[in-house]
Amino acid sequence: MLDPALYQTIFASAPIGACIFSPSDDPVILDVNEAFLRNVAYTREQLVGQRLFAALPEDPNDPNDTGVAALGRALARVIETGQPQSLPTQRYPIRTIGEGGAEVFVERFWNAVNTPIFDAQGKLLCIYHVTIEVTEQMRAEEALHLSRREALDAALQAEAGRARLKAVLEAAPVGITVVASNGEVLELNAAHDALWGREGLPKEAPVDFSEWRGWWADGSDRHGQPVAPDEWPLAQALRGTPQAHQLIEIETFDEQRQRRVVLLSAAPIRDRDGEVLAAVVVLLDMSERLKAEEALREADRRKDEFLAMLAHELRNPLAPIMVAAELLGHASVDVERVKRTGAVILRQVKHLTSLVDDLLDVSRVTRGLVVIDKQRVDMRTILAQAVEQVTPLLQARRHHLEVRPQAQPLVVCGDAKRLIQVLANLLNNAVKYTPPGGRIDVETRIEGSCAQVSVSDNGIGMSEELITRAFELFAQAERGSDRTQGGLGIGLAVVKRLVELHGGTIRVHSDGPGQGSRFTVSIPLADSSEALSPAPTRSPLATASAPLSVMVVDDNVDAAQMLSMMIEACGYRVRTEHGSQAALIAAATDPADVYLLDIGLPEINGLALAQCLRANPPTRDAVLIAVTGYGRLEDRAASNQAGFDFHFVKPIDSEDLAGLLRDIATRRQRASPERRHGASRAWPSNVAP
What we know:
It is built from 20 helices and 25 strands.
């Protein structure tokens, strides 16, 4: 058996650092060898007899210092299992004193093995801790790994850069081509191929600019001239001359040989010495944009024409109205002349109302606010109503109208009022665009599952360009400056939308200017199982059927007086007020049966006034009629919420109002005296205009 002193000599002089720890949770350093002292740069006195983790602590300022925790777990496993424990390469900084006496921790890496030492009876005496410092090896491996990673990253970045460039080229909405100085195509994207109508430029031969067909489209003196091979922006960039924003109309290489206007920009790509290595050209298709700009200019022109036309159309009826009003002011005017003058005013006001209704109609139609009340109606009856509306205009223009109706019924499911509007508009259109003494033919037929109505004329006809936009807003054929028949150029746009709301179609045909026009409307036929609904008719001005007291409240004195005079002419007692407070005072002392309230009143508006009348017992059950210039669905909903029974849009149709007042008077007369006011509140919804 060897001398124990030999074991001590072997331990002390071993070239590998070694320590002996006590077997406890907080081990004590029992001994260290010289190699370990050299590794940690400590003296024996600083370590032997000290608590391990007090003598070699963790760095309190380094959250990544896990050496103490790892070593503590390894020693605990040795004590628990009695088996040696190897630690993988572990980072364990060592505390030292730096310059100026400051405490610093130096990063160190170690491989360690912890071996339990037992006595003859198997009792654990100590733990033999052997360490090998691998700091330099770790740093060398890390440097090598970093170098490899950097090389790999550089390769990946280069590949990613090429992929990104390819992705950008393919995703770009513009055509891009990169060509080397020798004419070889280096890169090009799908948008470039799509613009030129070909599957890529050949890469085996230099680009041949003589194959490219193009014409200058920049509006300069060279506009329309062919682009010479050496004038192409890419060709000039390859010679070192950048080109920016050149407008050229190109011809594609495909069979269609389409024309496109493109915006080209090209720039040379140079090396460090300034030599041209390649050139890049970018092409942007401007065809649709230029068409849109032209369409905007055309729309702006048509808007200006429309505004001028609208001013003309409004002035036309205003002139006779003004003269008629002045004539009525003369004392010498006899009764017959008053009647004729009144008739003139009525016709012109109806014309003004028609213009305003057309404008409101197009607003409602384009915003999808038109509601179609569909019922079973015969298109022959609809046509008869439409013809009746335009007969005065036909007679004034001395046109010959021939109607060839279908013998059997043409029953459709539609809104009679709107269908009359459609056919009357087409007839009006034919009258206006046919010279005096012309011919207009109307034919009805069944075509498949549709009822068809065709309106033909021998008028001024239509060009192909006008046919394409016949159903657009403000589209009109050219007419003389007199414009005797008027019109805003919005009727056909409304007609088309109304026909579509009925599930139908409308088309137009003309052989050209001077050859007349034909409009054909097709509406699906209805199921024959339901009864027909009568077409709407207008009745004469209704007169009083029973006594009725009415109060008109409008701050417009002229409007209030005229409305009161009309109601008085129907045989009713009328009182007029021009302010909300005066109306409330009058209503408290002498309540009326019916109140016609302007919505735009000063002091309190008509909606608030209606609520006050509903809140007062004397007028709680009176009939309230809103009179306003607003007729939108939300306006009607607001008046209904305020307590109004009816909603009239200015100017009020006298026949509608007279008929409503007669119905109110009749219902009041039939009601018992104690419930007359209350009975007048219960109205069927279809009574409201």
